[in-house]
Amino acid sequence: MAGLYEKPSETYAKKRPRYPKEWFSMLAGLTAGHHRAWDAGCGSGQAAISMAEHYESVVATDVSEGQLRNAIAHPRVRYAHTPEHLTEDELVAMVGGEGSLDLIVVATSIHWFDIPLFYAVANRALKKPGGLLAVWGYNYEIHPFEEALHGQLYGALRPYQDPRARLAMERYRALPFPFEPVGVGAEGAPADVDIEVEMTLEDLAGFVMTGSVVTTAREKGAGEEMEAVVRDVMKRVEEEWGDAPTVPKKLAFKAFMLAGRPKC
């Protein structure tokens, strides 16, 4: 999946919505310690730097070197590249070793992982008791433009989508999550959480154009068809915008989250 985000990595870092600080305060309140945390599949690092407000050190890893080059620097965050060939033992060692982590976060990327391998690493690396894994995601369900973006746009581009991304489009309801619930969703029933942001029409278009489904459509030779669909959808969004396109508008990404502890 690294290739999906290599080319648009600089734009991607600028166009992703920021996660609410309240999420990280809530998760920090659920961990027994606040020494070490891991942002797995960190992308541009926006989750990692928020985790660093609550934990002494954060290791942030990604398979995409392009994303890491554009990640946000922070004195308590160490970024590391994770090539796809790394073994379970190597990954455990890279993130701090057995029983070393208070918190692991996967922000909008677990659907790209080798999930059984990742869960094996998480179970070994999390502290017992007291360690916590939290995963979340979002898709094109963006209020008040859900019908245009999730209905029309995603409906047209779905044939080009990587099958793994469907987990996110289906709100992680089919994501295996063999961890003890802590009141933030459970396997098959993620918690509904919103990400409220202010975006201009250009910001929203940038978000759409850096999504994996758009990148995959380009790679499969459907660039012209994809661009025509995006133009039609964004024209509809512009008509519904209400204000001048350059005036920021409050939008809500209808996100979803699961959090749990290793089973003893």
Automatic annotation (TrEMBL):
<dbReference type="InterPro" id="IPR029063">
    <property type="entry name" value="SAM-dependent_MTases_sf"/>
</dbReference>
<protein>
    <recommendedName>
        <fullName>Methyltransferase domain-containing protein</fullName>
    </recommendedName>
</protein>
<dbReference type="Pfam" id="PF13649">
    <property type="entry name" value="Methyltransf_25"/>
</dbReference>
<feature type="domain" description="Methyltransferase">
    <location>
        <begin position="39"/>
        <end position="130"/>
    </location>
</feature>
<dbReference type="InterPro" id="IPR041698">
    <property type="entry name" value="Methyltransf_25"/>
</dbReference>
